[in-house]
Design brief:
Keywords: Kinase, Transferase. InterPro entries: ATPase_NBD (IPR043129). This is XYLB kinase. The protein has one domain. The chain has three helices and two strands. By secondary structure, the chain is of the alpha+beta class. The protein is 43% helix and 14% strand.
Length: 65
């Protein structure tokens, strides 16, 4: 399923060795949404997040299908 997401959105997919890592990523985005008005960047919000690793990259030519 990660490859499908990568191809559909034409973006690399990263994962974490954490249960419910997708929910965790959504939580970080929500926190950023709350503090973005104060000038806090997403990078600052996630700097203490668990390390992620590249799972897949888009298939060449997938954006043309």
């Amino acid at each position: 399923i990660s490859q499908v997401l990568s191809d559909v959105f034409n973006a690399p997919v990263y994962t974490m060795d954490t249960a419910n890592s997708a929910c965790l990523g959504s939580a970080y985005r929500a926190i950023h949404g709350l503090v973005a008005e104060t000038g806090v960047s997403l990078a600052d919000v996630v700097k203490l997040a668990p390390e992620s690793r590249l799972a897949v990259t888009p298939t060449t030519g997938a954006e043309e299908v």
